[in-house]
Each structure stands twice: as C-alpha cells, then as structure tokens.
Amino acid sequence: MENLDVIYEDNHIVVVVKPQNVPSQADESGDLDMLSMVKAYVKEKYNKPGEAYIGLVHRLDRPTGGIMVFARTSKAANRLSEQIKNGEFVKTYYCVTDGIPKESEGHLVNYLKKDDNIVKIVPMSETGAKRAETIYKVLEVEKNLALVKVNILTGRSHQIRVQMANIGASLFGDGKYGKNISKTKHLALWAGELSFKHPTKDETLSFKVYPPEEKPWTEFNVSKFLG
C-alpha cells in the first residue's frame, strides 16, 4: 500500500490520487483496483479487524487519473452521495484535445448509449439513451493541441471523450474515439480538482492535483490554470 497516494484523510473520508489505467473498483480484468487498495490501506494503518468499511461514492473511468474521495463510514457515504445527487459535489477535469474546438467554450448536450464498451451519441427517443451534459472552456492552444477545462453535469461513462470527439476535438491519445491517434501510453484526461462539503463538519474541502509531467501536458503551462 506504500504506492497509494493519500492527500487527505480523517475519521470520515480518504482522498487519494487514482493513477491512470487503474480501475476504480474491481472488474472482470482482475487488476488491483482503488477500492481494494483503500480498504487494505485503512485496515493496515488502523489495525482494523476483518474487512475495513470503505464506501465508493463516485468513480473515474479506468483511463482517467486524478482525485477520488472514499467514505470511511456509511453516514459519510450517504451524505456525499446526496451532494452528488444535488450537484454540490464539484469535479473539474482537464484534458488535451487533438484538434481545437471551433468554439472557445460551450455547453454540450447529447444522448449517449453504451454498447459493448463503446459509447455512441444516439437520438433522445432511442431505448437506453441517457442525457449527457458537459461544459468546456479552452484555456490554451499550442499548435493543433488545446488544453481544455471541463465540468460535467451528468456522470455518463466515457462522456467527455465522446462529446469532445463529436465536436472535432478528440482527446489526445484516445484510441477508442479519436481519429488521429497520437502515440502515448496515457489518455490526456485528468480529474484535477474536487470540491465538496465535509460530511460531518460545516466546511468545504477543495483539492487540486496536477496531471503527470509528460506529453502532452508539458506542452502547456498547466500550473497557470490549476493554481
């Protein structure tokens, strides 16, 4: 568990950095996942008998890295889940697009449907279609790349990747939805900021984590925007 990057913890929550290509919870791959890692960390650090309770209140897609918060009690899990439901749990993503959006900022609304791990934009009337809303803002442009800040108003699988690709600005390194596949081991999508109310205290917690020091992130002055 020495590889787990914990940036904040108390009796109610654990805030960690999820590496890219690590699942948020166990899946059919059998690879070590964040939920299992946090459970093992808490069990070992606090000498917990049996399995430690850890509540998974939100997820990041496997290729996405960045900040995640886990609940250490069921009360914290319920209260954080309620914040997500009410739109009080604010996640801010950063991405680098291979191609520059025509509009410097926008509010994207589409209906998405997942089929065999591929998400497609479909008509609203199609069975299984789910509304997806994304707000984006271009922060900086370098050659044919753009550094983009993204907030999602819905939490659909592959949402940012599909909606940005749909406006001609697929994410750098996206082999699934991108047209021009850039050589990189990581998708250029990072959950860089997270803000929420502490589940038991009258205070708002805010966290920021920088994306990896690698291309294409190093093409931009990320610290200027992430603070």
TrEMBL record:
The keyword Isomerase applies. Keywords: Isomerase. GO terms for molecular function: catalytic activity, acting on RNA; pseudouridine synthase activity; RNA binding. It catalyses: a uridine in RNA = a pseudouridine in RNA. Transmembrane segments: none annotated. SUPFAM superfamilies: Pseudouridine synthase (SSF55120). Residues 12-165 form the Pseudouridine synthase RsuA/RluA-like domain. CDD domains: PseudoU_synth_RluA_like (cd02869). The keyword Isomerase applies. GO terms for biological process: pseudouridine synthesis; RNA processing. InterPro entries: PsdUridine_synth_cat_dom_sf (IPR020103), PsdUridine_synth_RsuA/RluA (IPR006145), RluA_PseudoU_synthase (IPR050188). Belongs to the pseudouridine synthase RluA family. This is RNA pseudouridylate synthase.
